[in-house]
Amino acid sequence: MKKEAIFPEALPMPRVAYSPAVKAGPFVFISGQVASDFQTGIPPAATINPNFPHHGSNIERQTQYIANNLRATLEAAGSSLEQCVSFTLYHTHTQELHGASEVLQQTFGSTGVPPHTTVLLEELPVPGCTLETDLVGFVSETGQRPEVIQAEALPPPAIHGLNGQTLYHYGVKAGEFIFTAGLTATDFSSGLAPGAQVDPNFPYYAESARLQTEYVLKAQQAVLQAAGASLEHVVKAEVYMTDIQDFYRLEQIWKQYFPTDPPARTTVPVNDLGVPGLRIAINLVAYVPQDGPAKRTIRTEAAPIPLAHEPQAVQAGSFLFFSGQMATDYRTGVPAEARVDPNFPHYSSAAEKEVNYIVKNIEAICRAAGTSRDQLLRRRGFYTDFGEFFTSFAAWAEAFPTDPPASTTVRIPGPLPIPGCKVVIDLIGLVPDEST
Questions:
Q1: Which pTM value belongs to this model?
Q2: I need a surface site. Which of 34, 169, 184, 199 has the fewest CB within 10 A?
Q3: Domain 304-436 carries which CATH code?
Q4: What distances in angstroms separate CA 233 from CA 14, 295, 323, 401, 418, one per listed residue?
């Protein structure tokens, strides 16, 4: 299995160093797509005609523009929209959720929108763009298709297309991997499910974050069981939180459901989850091999050891899933090496120093897993401040002079789980099999 960077001719060239897509084995990782040609900002094709302001909407045009680019990128990698296994939508405006959903319904057609996670956040890297998406596609050499997981134990999603097809899948199985949707504590009937609500008669005898976390993890258990797996097979979790103060509450429940060998985990603060009262969304990747170990936890003293119940990384087959990387030593917060010297505040960049610190730790974790940073497949950068985005990305580019990983960049509300950190980076890498 080898890494292959893909630059489709039909797509505009990125303005910073990343690959529009990276293919490795049965998966293709697509960079974050916004409705921009990277030359004029938002092109006419992605916005309504000002002479006809009531014919369509900007979000519909932006979503269609993105969908066309996703289709072209997947086809260039030998995949298709029908073979998507994981989809993330980063919105900046709650009122645009419905408009984007209608376009996606038409885009994905009878197969339905793949398991996805929808979050609301602060800003995207191109002004005026209000939606960014990234996804993972499946590429099978045997013609195998992703298998939709029918989680009969869970309430049927209430969101349907005009012709009745489901717009929401709980999960799919693709080869030896299972990808679940970003689940929240809703029963698709009452918004926040009654089982995840604090009893108003006893407001101090429960905590919303704990109840919602447990509700979501129970639902994820049901999805995995329907696919012939369990939480023990989970190798990666993405957690989105509307209040980072809930992190400790989530952590207590997390330890109960993952008592040993927890998955790699990236935790990201967001503005909203689209339904009033929802505080936490979680999606998972599980690995169920036909033979051999289900996963391998990576640990090295050459990189900081997380304080929370999460490893530095987890290997599943040939893929390496990292926990969210921040510029912290987990002892002093942000260490001096990753901070601007307050005596010389104008002689360095805080974001650049953080990225350089993170890259050093990435390299150490890769070595411990038997690979190198050149084998990174996908990067997601969650920034609390875009002011130094370009400077930090230039530092990132120096570490990846050729075939850089696919990349998604968005701005989120602060603070991060480690106050003082400006960016958290989520990563997937490849551990090459030399025999292939």
A1: 0.96
A2: 199
A3: 3.30.1330.40
A4: 36, 7, 16, 35, 28
